[in-house]
Structures are given as C-alpha cells and as structure tokens.
Amino acid sequence: MTPAAAEKANIIELSEKKSMSEIHDTYQIPCRVQEIKIMVGQFSVVGDLLLPVTGTKHPVIIVVWGDGEAGRHTVGKPSKLIRIFIECGYAVFLEDKPGFGASTGEFSSDHMLHERAMILAKEAATLRGHAAIDPERVGVYGHSQGGYVMALALASGSKFDFVVAISCPAMNGVLQSAYLVGKQIQCEGFSKEMAERAASYYAQRESAQDYPTYLEAARYLDGIPLVRDVLGWGGIISEEEFKPQQPDREDFYDPMGQFSRLTAPALVIFGEKDTQADPVQGSESYQKAFEQNGNRFFRVAVLKDTDHNMDLTETGCWKEQVENHRSGGGRGVNPEFVKILREWLGWIKGEV
To answer: Which pLDDT does position 330 carry in this prediction?
Structure first.
C-alpha cells in the first residue's frame, strides 16, 4: 500500500455532509462541508473539513483548540475567524475533541498533550492525502494550550508548512499557570507584591523535591480563596502522599525548544492585556528563537488593549471575558488582529 493510500485508509467516513443551503445554516458561511472520522490509537476523532465553494486544491488550516471542551459546534455562528480563513481561500479542519461531540476516547491524566499531538499529526497526514487539499500547504492555527500540542507534534516528526500561534505560552506549563495565578490575584484587586508571591509559591509547590518545601507553598496557596475555590488549585497532601515531581512531567515541557528549530513561516500574536499567557516574555522568546534559528518568514505582534482571546478589553481579566461572553457584548475582536491575519494568510497563499 502506498503512503497516500495508507492515509486514505484512515478516513473511515468522508462524505458531503449537507447541501449548500443546509451548510449555510450550520456555519452561516458559504462553503462545502465534509465530515471526516479518523482512528488514532484509542481515539475516534470526528471533524468537519470546510472547503471554499470555488477551486479544486486548497491550502488547509487545522484548528488546534486550547484547553477545555471544544468542537465543531462550539465556534460562534457565524465565526469571524472561520470566515476569514474561507474568504482567504483556505480549507479549515475543525475537530471535536475526544470525549466531546462525536469524538470518543479519554485522555490520560499525565499524557494528554502528547495524545493531542499524536491526533494532530494524524490529522495533518490524512489531510495531506485529501483530493481537495494542496499537500504542500498544510498548516496549523493553535490557540493557548494548542501551542504545546503543535510543538509536540513537530517534535514527533510531523511537518507543518506554516504555523499560526495565538496567545501560546513560551514557557512550561508550571510557569504559565504561575503567571495566570498572579494575574488573576491582581484582577481581584490585590497588590502586585501578593500576586508575585502567589505565583512564586505556585511554581515552588509544583517543583518541590522535598515535603517541607512543598508544604510551605501549599499552605500559602490554600489560604487564598481564588486559588482554592475558583481555580480549584488548592489543597494540601500528606507527607506520606507526597512524591517529588519528575522532570519529564508534561507540565514541565517547554515548547520553545521545538519552536526554536522551526523554519516554516510563522505568525505569533499576543494580547497586551493577556492574563493567562505572558505576552512580554512570550513575544520576546518567539522573536529571539526565530532570529537565532535564521527563520526569515515570521512575524511576532503584541496588540494593545487585547485579551487572551484577541478581544478588545479594559482589564483582560476572566470576569470581563466571562461577562462579555455571557452577554454577547464587549468590544469584540480587535480589528488589528483581523487585519494582520488576513494580510499574512494572503502572503502565505501567494508565496508558499
């Protein structure tokens, strides 16, 4: 069996999902939709491949979700992001995460990122053999946790012809969570000093190699209601239960080790008021990594008054994000983000 035939064999179902009028009702965007099911280990992954109405061979963008439940039907209707991709002439693949929507399988508690990367690698390989996809232009669009997934897929040997990283941390998961803890404490009105102390204790607790070091940090964090009750990151384990964390734990994975070797075109965008991923450290780290690697085809941008989701914001805090989502209000997506993304996608389509 040829490699192309082998990848096609991974497509369990590939069919026109709906008529054009029904497709408009589903995504509210003019496009053709095919449902694809891919078997990856213990996972059955189902997704929609959205294709522009005209043309035969399209570059494709695989959307790599961030943390939490996500799938084809969690995107906004209509989705401004998906509309941008389609209008720029790109096909788009949207998966249901395993355990959500039509996809099945349960992620491991300690290898979830690697399992997501394994799925992404198979999706890319499968789409590269699809009749409607240009096999030389298979790219990824990752948000937040999606940055770790993309880096691990690249580390496993998967190839992406272009990469878009939005609000993707440039540090390991322990330090990223510590940053988040500190920022959310500041959002509650507490001092910068207290926020920095809490962030430091979070990193100490997660990295502790002996029980006294762990206990000092755990007691401090458990005394903060936001950490204990809102984030659910409190609690104190006994000395008998304590085990030093191993360096190969996924939370200690630094994606910059892989992105520092990336030579494919890359677009990296952060929001200046991101309270979940550090935009200063992140933008500087990506810029330095690409420059040192000699990658000539990249852009790193930090957008003013913009949050983790690329929405315009006053604070960037969770409460504002949740309220905007709940009310359907807020100031909406930063138009500068839309402008940069459209321009960059147009450049990729014309040059790669």
So the answer is: 57
Smallest Cα–Cα separation from 272: which of 299, 298, 311? 311
Q: pLDDT tens across 1-32, in order? A: 344 444 444 444 444 454 444 454 678 888 99
The CA–CA distances, whole Å, from 223 to 116, 187, 210 equal: 34, 17, 21
From its phi and psi, is residue 164 left (phi > 0), alpha (psi between -120 and 50) or beta?
Answer: beta
- The string of pLDDT tens digits covering residues 219-267 is 999 999 999 999 999 999 999 999 998 889 999 999 999 999 999 999 9
Mind listing the domains of the chain with CATH numbers? 13-171+254-351 (3.40.50.1820), 173-230 (no CATH)
Asked if 93 and 62 count as a contact pair (C-beta separation under 8 A), the reply is yes
Pairwise CA distance, residues 232 & 251, whole Å? 17
Counting Cα atoms < 13 Å in the Cβ hemisphere of 153 gives 27
Phi, psi of 163 (to 5 degrees): -135, 130
Read off the pLDDT of residues 91-106 as tens digits, 9 standing for 90 and up. 999 999 999 999 999 9
- Distance CA(38)–CA(15), nearest Å, equals 13
Cβ neighbours, 10 Å, residue 335: 10
Cβ contacts of 224 within 8 Å, gap of 6 or more: 185, 198, 234
Concatenate the DSSP letters of all residues of 274-292 into one string.
-SSS-HHHHHHHHHHHHHH
Q: Are strands 11-16 and 43-51 parallel, antiparallel or unpaired?
A: unpaired
Instruction: Report d(CA 205, CA 200) in Å as an integer.
Output: 9
Mean pLDDT along residues 331-343: 93
Strand partners, 60: 91, 138
